[in-house]
Amino acid sequence: MKTILNILTHGDERIGLRVVKEIQKLNIDRNILTVQIANNKAFKLRKRFIDQDLNRVFPGKKDGDYEERLAYKLSAVIKSADLVLDIHSTKSELRNAVIVTRLDDRTLKYVKAIQPKYVLVMNATKDNALISQAKIGIAFEYGKDNDPDVLKKIVKDIKRLFSYMGLIDVQLRRRKQITNYFNVISEVKKPKGYNLLSKIKNYKLIHKGEEFATNTKNYLVAEDNFYPILFGEGNYKTIFGFMGKRIPLTSLSRLERAGKNKFKERKCLTNEGRRSLRN
Question: What are phi and psi of 221, to 5 degrees?
Answer without folding.
Answer: -120, 135
